[in-house]
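Please produce the structure of this protein holding N-hydroxy-L-asparagine.
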Amino acid sequence: MYGMIATWRMAFEGVTKGTEILKHGGHAGDAIEIAIKEVENFEFYKSVGYGGLPNEDMEVELDAAYMDGTTFDIGAVAAIKDFANPISIARRLSKEEVNNLLVGEGAEKFAHKEGFERKNMLTERAKIHYHNRVKEVKELQLKPYSGHDTVGMVSLDVNENMIAGTSTSGLFMKKKGRVGDSPICGSGFYVDSKVGGASATGLGEDLIKGCISYEIVRLMKEGHHPQEACEIAVNNLDEELKIRRGKAGDLSLIAMNNKGEWGVSTNIEGFSFVVANQFQEPTVYLTKNINGKCIHEEASQEWLYNYMKTRTAPLVRK
Ligand code: SD4
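Below is the modeled complex.
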């Protein structure tokens, strides 16, 4: 069996490429890397890689991670600037004996030495978003920190290797140096080839509080189906946060076990995700949480059309 699951519609083209690798007996790590690079390279996705929205100093700082569920190799970068493909740097770091999670300048120095492609990741479009947001925040007293869509993926290959990967520009308008859940093992991602893997998107500060990706894998190890595991973990964390803190941030999780069965749960409206396996071509779904149960519906052609139209629509500076 092979399979892939990923957060958000934006992963569709990447999952399509990754699945081709898996179909031909390729490694789950190659599938994830090619899939995430595809998302990083597409300038109209404003929360991952090139075109990602900047921090409050108008700098694009990126987080990414790679975990091998067979060897437990983990590599991650946080708050890295000016490199095209943070996922590839994270994968490279996962092969090191130590120094597996590097931040900021240290991560950049490593990437430079290893010959990774340097790139100015701040696009003209992202600058317009930044200037508009600064204006809106002033005029409408809005919170600056909205707009976030991390790409998180889990892949399974025919040799039963499982990999998890993440890549994100984090929260729009975050403080310089802020690190979210995405490069943090157990929170933004976790995978064990003997069980399955999970990955998160949403408010990093809250996702971290539940070590939620690890929690889902733990529940799968106890025998829960990925769908049940995702629902239990998301509902519990959402509830605990509301009890203890009066509110819960966005929590959306995807998971797949080592049989290619999958699950998704969210506490928001309109979470989209992409799944493919041996029996199913890459498909975009939308999910809704109704009283703790998530109902998945295949995205309509109209929804898919409007998605790309709004992402690529011309943007004017206010
Ligand atoms: C973060 N979890 O940095 C990321 C942002 C994100 O969907 O997922 N967004 O907190």
